[in-house]
Structures are given as C-alpha cells and as structure tokens.
Task: inverse folding
C-alpha cells in the first residue's frame, strides 16, 4: 500500500504570496493532520481534519487554513507568506480521531520563502 | 497544556555502545507517549508508543522505552547502537481528549562514531 503522499516536494515563494500544499492519506484513513517543522525544531501542530470537519487547531494565525475533501485528501493554504513560514510541512494520516490511533507521516513539503 | 522536553540537543555515541535519550513531559492525566525517528529529508517514523499497561514498551529496530509516572519521563533506550541509527529522535505526547494532536519535543540529534 502507498504511504502518505505530499506535493510538491519543494517550493520557493516570495513574501506576500500564497501557497497551497497537498496531502493524500493512506487508503482507509479518514483523519489528516498538518504540522510545521522549522529547521532545528520539533514539529508543531497546525490542524487536524476528520471526516471533512476540523477537529483541532494549533496556535497559528488566520493566514493558515485547511480543508479536507470527500476522498479524505487535504490542502493546507497559507496566505501573505512571511519569511518565518519557511519550514518543512508534514502531513500525517490515521484511521480514527483518537490519540491512540497511530499516525503515519508523509515525507513533507519543504517551503522556502524569500 | 501539554509540553515535552528533550534535554539533550545532540548526543554522540560509539557504534556498539548503549544509548539512552531523555524525554520529560507535562500533562495532567495519563498521556499517550510516542518516540519518532527522522532521517535527513525524511518524514517521521514511529518507533514505539505507550498508552497504558506495562511501563516498558518494545519498539522497532531494537528500541525500548520506559514510562515512569513519578518522574514524568519516557526515556528511549537501545543496548547496542548501529551506524544506521544516526538520525533525529523526537518524543511526543498525545491525549485522549485532543484528537490526533501531538505535542513534540525539540528533538535529539544522534551521531554515531565508528
């Protein structure tokens, strides 16, 4: 079975631009979570979606938004990019909505903001 | 609020030596505890997890971890390190009432000397 896939792999944007990152979960997984990993730090939770509904939101500004589609894939959108948004964005999928459901992480999208 | 501390930013061990990576967490109830490994340019791979029961848990690649409630710790151990274990290791905590959200520590970078 294919693992979690993310696209694009790398992305370079300039300040003020908008970016959309995409994630396809493992088949049968209904929950998708997004994390931001700044270089040298641990991942930080941004959003969780389960059955197309937002189930959790981390401490990120409203410039960050996400959605989940009927096929359970997900998009993360970031508006008005800042230099500090440069990071590895990780997507994770799991079968259920509980903390004991194992999460499987994708390889990430490396975003560079110039 | 949950928090995770990994006191050691970098650790260097010789191949064949034993390893212990420290993790301390802060959470009011019984947490769900995880250890993940991240190789350069890769996503996160789950090594092991603790939800309840036996406080010594076995994981993949010969790793184990022990949950000590009195010390709020969940340290990762391996009796004999291999060069391929060189990577970044992250401790994370989840909760029964927080969906899939994980709070990660800052990570420990393991280097292995030949």
Result:
């Amino acid at each position: 079975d294919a693992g979690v896939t993310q696209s694009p792999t790398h992305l370079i944007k300039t300040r003020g631009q908008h970016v959309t990152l995409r994630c396809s979960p493992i088949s049968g997984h209904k929950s998708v979570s997004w994390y931001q990993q700044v270089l040298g730090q641990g991942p930080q939770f941004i959003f969780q979606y389960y059955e197309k509904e937002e189930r959790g939101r981390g401490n990120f500004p409203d410039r960050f938004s996400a959605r989940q589609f009927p096929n359970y894939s997900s998009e993360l959108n970031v508006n008005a990019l800042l230099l500090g948004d440069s990071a590895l964005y990780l997507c994770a999928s799991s079968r259920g909505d509980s903390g004991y459901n194992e999460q499987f992480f994708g390889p990430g999208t490396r975003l560079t903001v110039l | 609020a949950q928090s995770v501390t990994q006191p050691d930013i970098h650790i260097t061990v010789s191949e064949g030596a034993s390893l212990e990576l420290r993790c301390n967490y802060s959470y009011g109830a019984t947490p769900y505890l995880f250890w993940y490994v991240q190789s350069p340019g890769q996503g996160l791979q789950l090594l092991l997890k603790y939800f309840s029961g036996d406080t010594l848990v076995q994981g993949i690649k010969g790793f184990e971890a022990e949950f000590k409630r009195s010390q709020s710790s969940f340290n990762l151990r391996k009796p004999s390190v291999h060069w391929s274990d060189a990577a970044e290791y992250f401790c994370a905590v989840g909760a029964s009432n927080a969906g899939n959200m994980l709070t990660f520590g800052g990570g420990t970078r393991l280097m292995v000397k030949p």
Notes: Chain B touches chain A through 27 residues (CB under 8 Å). Chain B has a mean pLDDT of 93. The radius of gyration of chain B is 14 Å. The first strand of chain B starts at residue 3 and ends at 5.
